[in-house]
Amino acid sequence: MALTTRRRALTTLGAALAGTIALPAHRAAAGERTPRPRPLWQAHAHNDYAHPRPLADALDHRFNSVEADIFLVGDQLLVGHEAADLDPSRTLESLYLEPLAARVRAHHGWVHRGWHRPLQLLIDLKTEGSSTYAALDRQLRRHPRLFTRYAHGRVHPGPVTVVVSGDRAARTPMAAQTERRAFYDGRLGDLGGPAPASFIPLISDNWTQNFTWTGVGAFPDAERRTLRSITGAAHARGQRVRFWATPDSPGPARDALWTELLAAGVDHLNTDDLAGLEAFLDAHPSA
């Protein structure tokens, strides 16, 4: 094979593996499959339920992590940010669990068609943790094949991984289970602690309570070292890292902070601006 031809073949192969190569028009017209858009693994839809189409808007923007706040009202798990905002028709089942189950059925076992990687569903408990988690556990068990499952010391991946955040009282009953369909959202105080990634796969914390920099000016070297030590310690234990309360107004400060988070290996970027984060991550494909 001539050198030029070989280089062209290797370039084509690399692009295909990355999912970025486009089919020529005559091949597309012949019915050959076009590459599917790559999901944005780092994109987390904070307060996802506040968008016009909960879940659907985030998935249309290729997000792989969404967040829903829930309240236990009677025997129902209602989704909303404040108790005054609750609507009996907006349940966790109707907004998230049923649509995810239908999508997984349509996409041959996964949320993003052709990508065998779980979507993260972060569920923030707004009412007392132990009773709210008990109700959540009962609902998750109604979908036995939908969720990543922990059973007797082993994690069995599924199309959706539920991570429980919010009221800390959920931790004790969760830790006591030998079989469950949810995992626990830790804090920086859990980093390096005895709980393994099979219980705490995610470390989340408030950015403003741990760092002073908000994207304006230079990132202080000491804070950059702290951030990288956090991600390094978490990744060494198989855990992922997320910060909330990061700047989310469009502009250079937000872009600068997101750039530093990606460079440090932070796994999830928090936003309410779906299109803004999609555009940012598309402009930083090396992430």
UniProtKB/TrEMBL annotation:
Secretion signal: which residues?
1-30
- InterPro entries in alphabetical order: AIM6_PI-PLC-like_dom, HAT_RTT109-like, PLC-like_Pdiesterase_TIM-brl, TAT_signal
The UniProt keywords, alphabetically, are: Signal
Mind telling me what this protein is named? Altered inheritance of mitochondria protein 6
- Identify the species of origin: Streptomyces tricolor
